[in-house]
Amino acid sequence: MLQAMTAKELEYIADSMSNEDLLMKQCAAVVSVATTPAIKNCCSQMIQMHQQHYDSLMHAIQHHQQMAPTQPQ
Questions:
Q1: Which of the 8 DSSP states describes residue 69?
Q2: CB burial readout 15-25, b (16+ within 10 A) else e
Q3: Distances (CA, A) of 48 to 15, 22, 43, 51, 60
Q4: Distance between CA atoms of 58 and 48, rounded to whole angstroms?
């Protein structure tokens, strides 16, 4: 059976989510000023990739929340 995550693991996931969010914002900034279509396309793809990473991390947090109340303290 899977165990709930530790506080350290939750901290790591929260930090990773923050990093993914920052990377999305940085890519979006490049997309807004880039004039080369290839660069815009590449950064747009990177935004999608970082969004997928963020969503995966969010799913892990949500899964933890479902498990955590049933775990002994």
A1: G
A2: eebeebeebbe
A3: 19, 13, 9, 5, 18
A4: 15
Domain span including residue 36: 22-61
For residue 71, pLDDT over 60 is answered with no
Dist CA 27 CA 12 (whole Å): 22
Give the pTM. 0.84
At 43, list the tokens.
Answer: 């950064």
**Is residue 71 a part of any domain in this protein?**
no
- Specify if 28 maps to a domain: yes
* Total number of domains in the chain: 1
What's the pLDDT at 64?
83
Residue 52 domain-assigned?
Answer: yes
